[in-house]
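INFO  loader      accepted 1 record
INFO  loader      residues=388
INFO  predictor   begin
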Amino acid sequence: MSAKEAPFAPRERRCKSTIPVGILYSVSGHYGSIGREMLNGIMLAIEEVNADDSLDFSLAPIVCDPGCQLENYYRYCRDLLHSHGVKHIVGCYTSASRKLILPLVEGANALLWHTARYEGFESSDHVMYLGAAPNQHVLPMLDYVFAHYPREVYHVGSNYIWSEEIDRITRETVEARGGKMIASEFLPLGETDVLPIIQDILARRPPVILITLVGISAYRFFQLWKTMMPEHPFLREAAPARLSLTLCEREVAMIGAEALEGCLVSAVYFHSIANAQNEQFVARYHQRFGEQATTTVDAEAAWMSGHFLARGIQASGSDDPALVKEAIYGYDLDAPNGVTRINRENNHASLTPRLARIGADGQFHLLWQAASPVTPDPWLTWSDLSRQ
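INFO  predictor   done
INFO  writer      dumping tokens
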């Protein structure tokens, strides 16, 4: 056979090693829709990694659905670490679930790839934080809002650590800038009786409302708000600024654009970002999950975790967590949200904050974005809460 004929011969494929990866997202239960977006993101990344012939390994996902039950997170995590020999787990949406499994991950000398936005004040050697820290999503939103609205905030959230810490950060920021917290109300996770909260809002008439309700609680809040609008002019004509740190494109489709029109959302990624990397990401996502599927900040963060992990394994030649971490420090991932780097100092990602307003068309219309990625400050040690 001549050299010219060689390309037509069957190509020999290298025998790749297989590395198990634990996936721990709730795709059922009261915040299961967000878990599904995260699962989609990591599965797309794993499929892309496994299709790359330049890599000498493949990732084998072991998918677990805790069903939004904390005891299941603990049980499945222990099983992944000790029965399946997993060294890397991608997962957790709520801070409660992350904090519950962290001792297991640390005890097994493994690595958790945490992809959700969170409240900060944590920096474990055994966690890679791909979601926004407070100075990348909470403070940028407050900066914008306080430039356009009175500094009086009513907060309603789900009763767990994330909402409680966001409340504390917001309160300290509001008071440092001469404003006040009108109220801080918390509902149990999964609670759907939100009528008393809206009635209290009608009585107090706050100019700004921060909503950190999670899952079905948030959906019911926005839907009931819309239902009550015809009877209460305040909710439609003099409506306060409604702020969200969690709403994403998938949830708008579930709740309905009419119930969410005008909401301000802070995130580091929106489906509508105009750059080549995002256009390619959206196209691949549609091809894999259908044209009706919409990329979200949760899906994008999970996708990043898969590619950072693959980069670390390939560069270090090992799936050892310590070697993987060392290999990716300082590596710039050209991600859909922009250039992203994981910082050696605290294992958090540098991300580009953005603010958008939900329109009548259900789209996130960009209002503002930072000029460049913002270095994470999870402990708010150098962030100036009092800046005007």
